[in-house]
Every structure is written in C-alpha cells, then in structure tokens.
Amino acid sequence: MVAKRIIPCLDVKDGKTVKGVNFQNLREVGDAVELGAFYASEGADELVYLDISATLEGRKTFTGLVRSIAERIDIPFTVGGGISSLRDAAKLLEAGADKVTVNSAAVRNPGLIGEIADHFGSQFVVVAIDAKFVGGDWTVFTSGGSVPSEKKLYSWALEAMDRGAGEILFTSMDHDGTKSGYPCDVFSRLCGSLSIPVIASGGAGSMADIAEVLLEGRADAALAASLFHYGELSIRDLKEYLRGKGVPVRL
Predict the structure, then answer these.
(1) Mean pLDDT within 211-231
(2) What is the pLDDT of residues 180-208, one digit of tens each?
(3) Which of 12, 85, 96, 201 sits at a 20 to 30 Å CA gap from 104?
C-alpha cells in the first residue's frame, strides 16, 4: 500500500511564514527557510510553500527564497503563488523546486495546466483549489481566496486532471485555520472521482482529524499549518499515532 504523506504548509508573505483564519487576520509565525528545515528534520514527507500575496498583488514568487529552501532541505517541496506562465514555472524548477502549484492563473487560463505538464511532466504540476460552500455548492475562489469564480469544485478538479495535473490540493476555505476538522465527505467524493492523488487542506485540529481525512476522506496526503507552526503537534508523534490507527506512513 502506498504510504500516506504528511505535508506542512508554509504560507509566505514577504519572505515570512504567516497564518490566519479563513484566509484573514494573518500573523507571522516564523522564518520560511528555518521552519522548512525544522519540519524536514522532524520527518515531514514534503513541504508546500505558498506565496499567498503574490497573485493578489501581481507579484511573482521569489526565486531567491526557493534557492535558499533548496539549499537547506532534502525532501521534495512544492512552490506556488503568482505562477501564470510556463516561464514562471521554469524559473522555479531551475531554482530548486520539485513541483509547482497553480491556482488563480489556471482558473483564468486552464490551458496553462497542459502547457506546464507537456513541458515538464504531470508530476511537476499540482493544481490548488480554494473553495467555499456557497448557495448549496462548492464555489472555487481565486486571488488568495478573495474572488469567487464560475467554477465548481468537482467539475474543475476533473478538468484539471484531464488537462494534465498530477495532483490536486484542495483547501476548504470554510475550515481553513479553524481546527474544526476536514470536510471528509467532500474529500471522499473528490478522491473517488479522480485517478490522481488528492492533498487535503483546511481544518486540521488534532491527530484524529488527520487520521479521519486519510481513512474516511480517502485523501492521499494531509496538509496542515497551524498545528505544526504553533508547536501543538510534532510530525513524529503524528506519524506514530497514524500508524497505530492503521494508516500507512513512513517513519
């Protein structure tokens, strides 16, 4: 059985790791490079760095930060934020990123997914989806979760897969930073409709929440931020707990 992955997420603004609730009220929680190195030493399987202000402010992800991360850690890491072209993706790969994640630009220009996948391979492309339950359906938002789009979660995830995405990173905006648990029914449906890995994001409040989304939610990986950033949970303790619950993980 393929091991489930534990992935700390580092939201980056101006080079610092930040965290908020429901994408609002951000506060600094540490240096992006140092935190990444610490999580790698703790047993994280991968890392995700998201420049959460890059798209909103029209900036590009800093390749210098990516180079610094690549010099310090020896586990795969994904970088996103402000990636709107094949050239943007190429710069990040050359700087040391293992994967890129596209979100807002892919919603506006779905062909970007296939363009990057055709050039580098699907395994290099993670499509991030931020969605909120609005009017009885999961609506996809862009620009750091500030602008609603016409796309809906399940149909957009299928389209992204068909266009060449190697993974889907779905964040429930309703659960983000609340520590109230993941919407496991949503993840179970999403995972059942796709043939590529799904990373669960938004709502981790305990080890039990993470076990639930990996088992009942059928997610291939669990991404969390608050629990790790505030020292409430260690990655090693989490993995030992998960193994005890029958979740295959690498220790």
Answers:
(1) 91
(2) 899 999 999 999 999 999 999 988 889 99
(3) 96
**DSSP helix/strand/coil, 157:** helix
Residue-wise pLDDT tens digits, 64-88: 888 999 999 999 999 988 889 999 9
**Burial class, 180, CB count within 10 angstroms (exposed 0-12 / middle 13-18 / buried 19+):** middle
Tokens of 230: 């505030």
In a domain, 251, yes or no: no
The sign of the dihedral angle between the CA atoms of 209, 212, 214, 219 is negative
User: Residue 157 carries which side chain, given as an amino acid letter?
Assistant: A
Number of domains in the chain: 1
CATH code of residue 55: 3.20.20.70
**Parent domain of 173:** 5-244
Q: Which residues are catalytic?
A: 11, 130
